Request: fold
Amino acid sequence: MPEWPLVDSVQFAKQHAVERRSVAVSEFKRLAQLVLSDEGEFEVGLEGFEDSEGRPCLQLHVAGSMTVTCQRCLEPLELGIVSDHRFVLAESEQDLMDPGDEADDVDSLLADSKLDAMALAEDEILLQIPMAPVHEENTCTQPQWSSDAGSEGSPFSVLGALTNTKD
Ligand SMILES: [Zn+2]
Reply:
């Protein structure tokens, strides 16, 4: 299994390093438990840089798709996820940004000399999965009500029979 080597996050940022790789859904251990099949792959990119204030930052990019269960029709649903997330590296707990001050797609992350980029990417994907993933409106597989039921199976004839018993 092509494990992503642990990276020294601050060094990675200061060196403006760039890493990109394709990761199969099955290589993400937590994600693999949520999906219907092992098919699917994510492009994961990690880019180091310093922001305008000179703070070391990481830009994480994930894009790919996986198969989950539609919570409306219970049929397989291909869920595409694309996300970009910026992390400002903090040298200490005290330097971590107040979550209220952070923009939606910017977080502070404690500097780590052994950052697990795979876990960071997996966290990002997990965060993007909706609570109840469903097909787009009107594209769910419809239940097969009337394929071979014929008129005898019609709910209206049953209703007619019920009302007739009152005579
Ligand atoms: Zn559906």
About this structure: The pocket of zinc ion is lined by residues 70, 72-73, 75, 77, 134-135, 140 (CB under 6 Å). The first strand starts at residue 18 and ends at 24.
